[in-house]
Write a structure and sequence with these properties.
The chain is an alpha/beta fold. The chain folds into two domains: 121 residues, P-loop containing nucleotide triphosphate hydrolases (Rossmann fold, 3-Layer(aba) Sandwich), CATH 3.40.50; 71 residues, no CATH class. It contains nine helices and five strands. A five-stranded parallel sheet has the order 2-3-1-4-5, with helices on both faces. The radius of gyration is 18 Å and the shape is globular.
Length: 205
């Protein structure tokens, strides 16, 4: 009997919620994990067609001396002009989607995880069978992000405002992983969810 196609859990959460830590726990249990942020980085690596298109549009000043994309310079260009941002999205999004699909297709586990900070906003949740939200109180998000990224609290507040609200994210969730305790507690919760997921067919109880 051949391997049946794995179904997909979309894992998301706000900044500082612990998406990466949760994804690592699933990975350690043998679950195939695909990271949308990683896919977004791959499509603009040197030698990729998307990077060549970006350079044709914005010129070589959009590159670092080593030929990689200067993200800060690009961000500045698209931040000022909505039309440029739309153009960039039209170039990147289909390619990111293809990359995600290719990596999900390689899964050998009964289910796979798609980690994406913008799972709900981007519509990526439509290719998943369940949405898992890693959730923490806002005060914890702020404290963790300030410590991790060495940024001030006002910057984190601005990011939180730009992201989907915690309430809205939770409203979309099939499952919620509370991550305000220790890493050991998170690993235990992931293991519990993993056992539950293994008993599901195509993401349905």
């Amino acid at each position: 009997m051949g391997q049946s196609t794995p179904w997909v859990v979309g894992l998301t959460g706000g900044i500082g919620s612990g998406k990466t830590a949760a994804a690592r726990c699933f990975s350690e249990l043998g679950v195939h994990v695909v990271d949308a942020d990683q896919a977004a980085r791959w499509v603009v690596e040197p030698g990729q067609p998307a990077l060549a298109e970006i350079v044709r549009r914005f010129g070589s000043e959009i590159l670092q001396p080593d030929g990689t994309l200067n993200r800060a310079a690009l961000r500045q260009r698209i931040f000022q002009e909505a039309e440029q941002r739309r153009w960039l999205e039209s170039v990147l999004h289909p390619r990111i989607q293809i990359t995600i699909d290719e990596h999900l297709a390689q899964a050998q586990s009964p289910y796979a995880i798609l980690v994406s900070p913008l799972l709900i906003e981007s519509g990526q949740y439509r290719q998943t069978q369940r949405v898992l939200v890693v959730d923490v109180p806002e005060s914890v998000q702020i404290a963790r992000t300030v410590a991790r990224d060495q940024v001030d609290e006002a910057q984190v507040q601005a990011i939180l405002k730009a992201q989907l609200s915690r309430t809205e994210r939770l409203r979309q969730a099939h499952d919620v992983l509370l991550n305000e305790h220790s890493p050991e507690h998170l690993a235990q919760e992931v293991k519990r969810l993993h056992e539950f997921y293994l008993g599901l067919t195509g993401g349905q109880p």
